[in-house]
Each structure stands twice: as C-alpha cells, then as structure tokens.
C-alpha cells in the first residue's frame, strides 16, 4: 500500500471501477440480454460518465479500444484471468505484463489472488512480481482478493472477507476488491482489517437499483472507498441513472434512498441487508 | 488486437491462410492420398496463388523452403504444435520463438490456445509472451482458438465458438482462427463476440467444392474475414479451381454458387448448412 | 552466517524481534481480543520500545507504515508467508524480493523454511537465492526454521529443534528463529548445534508474564540470543511492562523472577518448565 | 533444416556418425565383451577412420578426450541423455549447453526427442532452445527422433518412423537419426516425409557384417544419407573391415555384397530384409 | 573431466576430502558421541592435517569458519544437500550457487547426483549448470555419484558403482565420489569405467582403523585416487593417528598393515574384504 489519492483512478479518495472482463471470465453468455454490449466501444462510452474513475479490461480490449478513449477514460489493465471453460482448482493465467500494460497507457493494474486455493502460493508469487514491477512504473495495484478453493465453500462469510482485505494489505495491494460480506458490520470489520488501504466492493450479479445502491451506501458508511462494478452497470440498457445514483452515494455520501429520490425507504433497505 | 489492414497477410480486409502443419499435428497419414505433397515445395507453389495471403508452416519447413519463395509468398510461422503420437490432455509445445520467426522472415505468427484444457493457464501465459514479443517485431498474431479438453465434448457448438473468438479478442490476438459452428447465425454471433478483431474459419477435413465454398460464403456473410485452410486445398490434386472459387467468394463476395458457376444451387446449400 | 553484532537489529549481541505477520499467516482472528491492533501503526508504536531491536512485517505493512517510524524502529521484512486458508503440505509464497525489501528500507530480511515438508527442496532453493542476494545488500537473514510436514507430528521435540538450528547454520542463516524445545537442556543443545550462529526463541501463543519470561530466561541461559515475539506482546493491551521485563531478562541477564519483582518464585518456575 | 553439405560432418552429402554415449544410456554393461573400449581414447582412434564424419559423445568424454583428436576427428556433442537406472516415462536430461559444446569445439550437436512420450511437450521446447542457439553458433543439429512412450509399443513400425522423420523436419533438425523401419519401402517413405532433410539410420545392437551392411545399403538406396552407429562398430574387436565396408556402401554406393567381396549374395540378403 | 593435477585439492594425483555436511544430511544425531565436534572449528582444525587436501562443507559453515582457516585448509563447497527430515524420492536442494562459492573462497565444488531417482533428470540438469559455471571459475567439480531411488535396492553392488563412475565421467565431473562396491575387483572395474577421471571412495559409517585403512588401500590399488571421509575421521576423539595412516596408504602407497605397524596382518585383511 502506497498513498494513491493523487492517482487518476481516485476521486476525492474514492474509486468506481467499471469492469468488463466478463467475456473472458464468464464468456459471451453474460451479454445475452444486451448483445450490443459485446461491442467494447459501448462499455467504453459508459465509462466516460463522471462517476467512473477507471475502466478495467483485459489487454486485448485495451489495445483495440482504449486509443479512442484515452482522453476520457482512465485505464486499469487486468493482468490475469481465466475462462470458465476450464474447471480446475481456482487459478488464473497472467495474460499481460506490467510493462506492456504501461506501454498501452494503463493508469493502474489489477490482479486476482485466490487465497486458499491450491494455487495460492503460485498466485501470490506472481502478484509479488507484478506488484514490484508496477511500483517501478508508478502504477497502483488493485487486488481482486477472492478466497476460493478446496474447503472454502461460502466465500462471502465475514471472516473470509476480512481475511481477504488483510491479505491484500499484507501483500502490498493499493486497493482490495472484495465481495460484500452480507452486513454493514462485517464490511466495517473488513475495512478495519485493511488498515489505511482502500477497499472497494465487488458489484456481483445484476440486482435492482434499490438493492444495489443500498449495498454500496453500506460499503461507504463502513469505511469502504467505492466499488468495482460490471454487470450491474452494463447489463442495464441505460446505465446513466444508476451511475448518477452511484455518484451521489459514493462521492457525495448521500443515502441510497436520497440518491434514488425515495428517502423514506432507505432505512428499511439497510435493515434488510444487515439482517 | 491492433489494426492490421496494412499487413501483407491481409488483402482488402480479408485473409486466406494456407496451412500445412499437418505433418506435425497429424503425421504423414494426412498425405496418404497425395504423397507428392509431402514435398513442402509443392504446397509453397500452391501458396503463390493470388487468393492466398499467407502460408502457415512450422519452423523447420519455413527454414528449408521459404527462402525460395520469399518474393511470392507471405510467411506465417506457427509457433507451437504437438504430434498426435502424444495422447494427453490438450497441450502444445512452443517450438519456435518469435525472435527466430522474425529472423527467418515471418510476416505473422500463429499460436494455438486450447481454452478449457487443463493446460489453458500455461498456454495463455505462453501466448502472453509471444503476443507481446510479436508486438515488438510488428508481427500480427493469429490465434488458433480451439476450446478442447476435460468436459468439452462437442467443441464446435455455437456457445463454444463464440467463447473462442471472445477469448482471442480479450487476450490480444489480431485474428482468431475458429471452427465453423454449424450455422450462419452462430458464426455471426461468434464474429460479434470478436468486436473489431478479424475471425477466420478453420478449413477442416476435405469436403466437396460446393459444401466447402458454401461454408466459406456463410462465414464471409456472417462478418468473418476469410479462412485458414489446409487439407481442403492441398489434398486436392489440382487446388487451383478451388482457390479461384475462394478468391471470388472471399474478396469479391460472390455466392458459392456463382463462384462455382451454378448460381441456382447456392441458396439450397445455404439452407442445408444452416439447418 | 556472518558476524552481525554491528547490525542495527542486534543490541549487545542480542535481538528482540517484534513480529506482526499474523494477519497473513493466521488471519484477523488473532486480533479478535485486541481489535485496535489491527491498525499496524499501533504495533509500530510498540516497536519503538528500547527492548525491541526490529519489527518483522510483510511487505505491504512495511510500505504503508514504516515511513512514519523509520527513525525509531528497525525494519525486518519477512519475505515469504502463506494464509491459513490454504491447507496443503507446508509451503510459503515468496511475496517480496530482497531488492524491494532493501528499497523500502529493510535492515534485515526473514524467511521461513519448513524442513521435512514435501516442499523442503523448493524452499531451500528459494532461501539460497534470497540469502545470496541479501549478502549483496549487506542485510542479515533470519530463518524461521520450522520443521513441519509429512511424518513430523511433534514439531517441538528436542531433536527436531536441534536439527532446525543446525539446518539454519548449514544453509547460511545469520539468526535462526525456532520454537522452544521444552527444556533448558534441549535449548542448550539446539544452541550448540548452531555453532556461532545466533538462535532466537519463537514467542508462540499468549501465556502469562511469569511463564513467558521464564522461558525467555531459560533460552538466554542456554546460549540463546533473544526472541522473536508477536502475540505475547501485542495481544496484551499494554505491552510495556512485559517489554520492560524482556529488556531485563535478555540484555541485563536478570532472572525472570527479578524482572517481575518476585525473585523467590523464579527457581520454581524454571523447574516447572524443565520438568 | 538448413543446407549442411559444407559442414565437416558431411562428406559427399553423406554422414557416418560414430556414437559412443552408451556408458550413459545403457551403462558399462555394453562394454562387457570389449572392456578395453571403456577407454574412450580407443573409440576416438576408431573415429579417425575416413568413413567416419563425426564422433558423437557426451560432454564429459568430449572434454577429456577430444583435445587429443581435434585434428583427426569431427566432434558432435550429444546434449541430452539419461541413464537406464531411471525407469520413468521416456525423458532425457539436457546435460550440456550449446554454448559449452561450441566452446569445447563441437562441429555439430545432437538431441533426443521422444515423440509420443508424456514428456514430448517439454522435450520439444528444450529442442527449440538448443536448435535456435545452435543456429547462432552455425552448428548443425542432429535429432535422435525416437517415438516412444505410453501407447507406443512397437517403435519401429513404418508409420512411426515416417512420423519420426517428419517431426524432425517440421521442428527444424538438419539430420534425423531414426531406427530402420524393417523394409526398404518403409525407409523410402520415411525419407520422402523428411523432404530435403537428411535421414540417417540408427545402428542398433550388434549384428553380422552381412546383415548390417545390407540394411545400410537399403537405407542409402531409399534416399537415406548414412548412419549413426555405435555398438556395431566399437563392439567389434577390429572395426576397420566393417568401416571399410561402410565407406564402400555409403560414399561409393556399392552393394553390401560387393563391399564384402561376395557380390552374389547381395540380392538374397536384400530380399530377406524386405520380406 | 579436465586435468586437475595442479589443483590445490590434489596432492601427487591423490585427494583426501574431509567431509562434514552431516549436520544437514543426517542431523545432529551424527555428533551424539562427539558433541564437541558440533563446533565446526574443531573439524576445520582436523582438516589442517597434511593428509587432507580439502574440507567439504555447506555454504553456511564455509561462510562462518573458513575465513579463520583459509591459509591452512582448501575449501570444497558442497552445493546441494537435503535434510533427512524429508522422506521423498531421493532429491537434493541446490543451496549454494557456484558464484557465491567462488566468492567465499572455494577451491572446488561438490554436487550430489542420485542416478536412477525419479529426480535424476532434474538433478543432472542442475549439475549441467553448476558444472559449466564452475568451468568459468576454474573450479574442479566433485560429483557425489550415488545411484538411489525406485528400483535401486542395493546401491553398492558392483554394476551400480561402475555405472556411477561412468555417469560422472560422461556428465563432466572431475572427480567421482562413490561407495566402495565390496571388492577390489569391483572397485578396479569402476575405476576403468571412469577413464582418466579420478575416483574417490566414500568413507561411510565408522569402522575400525584396520578395516577402514584396508578398504582405502584396496581402493588405491584398484586405481582409485583417494577418499572423501567424514565420520571415520571426525567421529574419532583423536583423528590424527588415522589421518597419519591415510597419508601412508594414499600418498606413499603403503599397505594398510604397514601404515598401522602390523604388516603381517595386511594380506589376511585384504582377503577378507575381497571375499
């Protein structure tokens, strides 16, 4: 962890990373309901929204589409990933070097570590290399810290997510991307485990505006620094209203209810999430 | 993916790659009916046809025969491959470096990735290295994107081929070579998944002129950019008529029927394929 | 082993290393009773006590917190470690390079070797690389010498701990950190096996002041050179009294009883430990 | 494959490689009947015969004995090998680098590839490295192309040997050393599969002069370029008459019968072999 | 193998290597009866005897103790080794680089190869690297050639030891250290298999002066060049008489009996050994 408040991927101490690596990780099936989003240009367009501090994509998409958006979008190159055609113990191929990411204009790099996997040792050693090389290029490192593997059935339980943020801190990440552990209290503990390192919530599969913004609000109030979101944004035909809402909740620290214009429902939603 | 329309292996935005690595991948058995084609010079002769934008061979053949054809043929060096004497989980040996390929005159390089294989991680990491090194040499990279391995029985079903093209895009290929997924609709989806990256159809085992050209036409009409073909060309005693047909279908965007001089049958054939 | 009496991590030939890598090795659970210690700054504060010759942390914590303490604390960067989410044969990921440790100001480096593990070969080879690189940077190397793995049930029996110190000597460590083998006689043998190399006792899980200081006294009287301690210090709400006691026992070679102000109990305690 | 007719290991387009790596591959047992040949100097003496274009030995023997013969013998350093004390799936240790082989005066290098073995991938990748490095030093590469391993019971059947020569061609060998596939017709096919690359027959275990020379004659008439022979030469107390015979059959293209002075038997022998 | 008669570890063509790596290989248990020898300085003292041409120790011991003896002792750094806490298929960790051995003053390096182990391939490849690097530094290489592993039950039978010396010769060792194969005839064969390379006998576990010197005499008369001895020397309280005896037997080529002052018993002892 180094101070990164001056990084372009941070705005007022917060980050909203628009992720679109699903074509690699999940395959085209994630685009079934919004086939036009198979065109990466459309997602880059979305990333020009002021709420978004960076777009997270794989090397090939960065090479092909970032040049047209380099003035309007900050680029986070995800350095590893795996198809879900492969079904072994969780692991991820390092498919881009830090040097090449820097060359194509990255403002930050991302890397998945599956703590608890039989490949933890190897992934952490790969992380060491990319983290230290990223330091040379002055690029912040975001760890997708996703405990997973033999013996880790429920990977969102509070102790797992707290371990996930701590792992990221100890190993030298600048931001940890973790799943929401189910309650504001658990998220707050996970953020405390991270010390001064930033924690962003992982967006997960598509839910309603209310549910999603409430979870984000809960993350922010727990000490989180924003979110990395994919499907909840680009699987919407028009993501603008949700992005406007995220801007209010994250940077202006409004309640989800206020951001959606129905203040009165906010507490009820919170209670439901924390229950 | 980088813009490659100015590459010598592209003509009017299209590519026809004549592949002859079967001696390594399948063994001499593929030459049983045309033993004279065991002489690589004969296949290089065929590659001088205007329809062909590159010949794809392994290092040893490139070393020995390309010097006599360097003015008439564009060279794509395939950088990995495996004999079928070996019967393990799909994998492929990296048998030529990018540096050496460049030294012997390559205009492009090719690399197989078996997505879904237990060796996917390793192959993708090898691909990273060759892709980034190819960038330094300014050589386009063609990915033989062939999902295969544990749990992937039918490797030409539409969702598999769409995943194959997307994988190639995300990982940074310039052209993806994939199998025909059985229908024009499926091929069109596979091409959409590839964004702006070029997709070429894999020729497969020898069929009739009609069936072959119709499939090629279908690929072109689906947004494909040509084909990589081996046996359907050099297993013919005289490949010229078929190459003439390919030239019409691919560069002039004629129907297969028109290219074969029997326009009336074209729609019927299309229907059969798409059925 | 090289002479290291002039190293900042040694005071009068002795060392007290305050270790705080538990967030990685054990997870946040070790901080359950003292949640405020999840903030690494609090443990760095503790490390400013004169008794402490170095703080041992992982790279990420060193990056984030050492800059505020570089004038008051000596830094030992632990170069490998593993989460306990992972449950395979003992192994440890090399998560920091010697070069990077030096760059962020390390005064020494630490490395775990699990002798007897199925990964012994690999870990010893990693140790070779870090040890030789540490020599180039003039950094002392502390080996966490922890025999563990298939067939090693009781990893604190006297012969195991004696083997542990000898391994560290033969492989080129400057200090071996080993578990207390249960008796003063066994500890003395372990120290003899180490030749002129320094041996420090591993603190282990939290016990009473009396028990802990008596074990430390026993180590010092056996020829040991101090201790590496974590939970027994920072799991205490106010660690100062214990650190004062350690200072007396280790540098002034007082008895544990004298250090605690109840001299008369000292012999009884010793007897209990050695029994 | 590069043109190598000007290489010192080729004479009039042909090669006779005297191999003596049996001490490593088979152990001293191969020298049981000729214990004086345990002295490598004796085999180097034999290699001074005009019929021999190179001696093939391992690094240690080359280091120790070649300096006394560098004016009279051409040196081929075999770069990998394995003892038969080891009994796993066919593999071979790379025991000499190309750079070192060049430094000790090699005129060519040799490398075994077990196509079809579970180690094929790894061996082919090792071959890539040595082949490309050999190109930098201008050293021809001889591949011991020996399909072997899981599922490859009879490793001299015609289709296996034809695959073996083709593999060598595709992977960039300059000469393939293969076993005799049992008939002149099969050997001719194997040579056709090799394109312009040279194929030499592997000598195998000791047989009579008649049988051996007839097989060699058959190889030459099939388009082969000579042989690599060990036991059939140095297991003879006086190898000179056989070497004289090989000179006649290989360079002067005489029949085996003529070379042995009993012309009339030649056709009968041929028939027997081809039967 | 290179000529090494001018090396400091050779005296009149012979070598006596005092080995003390038992603390790593066997653990402190080997010092049970002579605990004072746990102090490496004591063994270095012993190595100052004129009979000893080199002391063989691991890196850590060399670092710590050789500086005090560099004028009186020649240093052989053993570059690999493994604890017997680990119980897998025979293997050995490379725990010191050639470069570092040279830096700390080594006159020679040593390396174990377990021919026949499932790790033979890997160990031979490691040997290649250290052997070639040792050539650059002008350091002789001693191979501990110890066939061992799956299927190798009796690792001192004559054919195994002969294979062991041959392996060392073919792979480029300058001296092979092998176990005594049980008879003078077998040792003589093992030496013949080594060509011009030197063979030294491995001392093994402690025996009587008579038995030990007789075996050494047998080795010398068989063409051996000395011995590498550990326990038989330093497990004796006063090793000087035995070292005097070794000096007589090895450099002056006296009989064991004469060396011990009881000439008449010599032949009988010989007969017993060879029986």
Automatic annotation (TrEMBL), chains A, B, C, D, E:
One of its GO terms (molecular function) is fructose-bisphosphate aldolase activity. Coiled coil: none annotated. Signal peptide: none annotated. InterPro entries: Aldolase_TIM, DeoC/FbaB/LacD_aldolase, DeoC/FbaB_aldolase, FbaB-like. The active site is at residues 146, 177. Its EC number is 4.1.2.13. Gene3D superfamilies: Aldolase class I. CDD domains: DhnA (cd00958). It comes from the Archaea. Pfam families: DeoC (PF01791). Belongs to the DeoC/FbaB aldolase family. This is fructose-bisphosphate aldolase. It comes from Saliphagus infecundisoli.
């Amino acid at each position: 962890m180094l101070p990164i408040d001056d990084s372009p991927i941070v705005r007022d101490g917060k980050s909203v990373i628009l992720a679109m690596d699903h074509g690699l990780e999940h395959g085209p099936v994630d685009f079934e309901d919004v086939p036009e989003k198979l065109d990466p240009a459309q997602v880059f367009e979305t990333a020009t929204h002021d709420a978004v501090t960076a777009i997270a994509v794989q090397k090939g998409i960065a090479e092909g589409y970032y040049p047209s958006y380099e003035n309007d979008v900050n680029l986070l190159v995800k350095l590893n990933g795996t198809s879900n055609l492969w079904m072994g113990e969780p692991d991820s191929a390092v498919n881009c070097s830090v040097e090449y990411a820097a060359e194509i204009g990255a403002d930050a790099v991302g890397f998945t570590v599956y703590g608890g996997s039989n490949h933890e040792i190897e992934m952490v050693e790969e992380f060491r290399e990319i983290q230290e090389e990223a330091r040379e290029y002055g690029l912040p490192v975001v760890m997708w810290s996703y405990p997973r593997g033999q013996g880790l059935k429920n990977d969102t339980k509070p102790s797992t997510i707290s371990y996930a943020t701590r792992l990221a801190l100890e190993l030298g990440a600048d931001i940890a991307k973790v799943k929401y552990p189910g309650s504001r209290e658990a998220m707050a503990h996970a953020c405390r485990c991270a010390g001064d390192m930033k924690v962003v919530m992982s967006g997960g599969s598509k839910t309603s505006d209310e549910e999603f913004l409430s979870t984000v609000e809960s993350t922010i109030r727990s000490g989180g620094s924003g979110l990395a979101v994919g499907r909840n944004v680009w699987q919407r035909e028009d993501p603008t209203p949700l992005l406007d809402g995220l801007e209010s909740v994250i940077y202006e620290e409004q309640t989800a209810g206020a951001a959606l214009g129905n203040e009165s429902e906010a507490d009820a939603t919170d209670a439901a999430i924390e229950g």
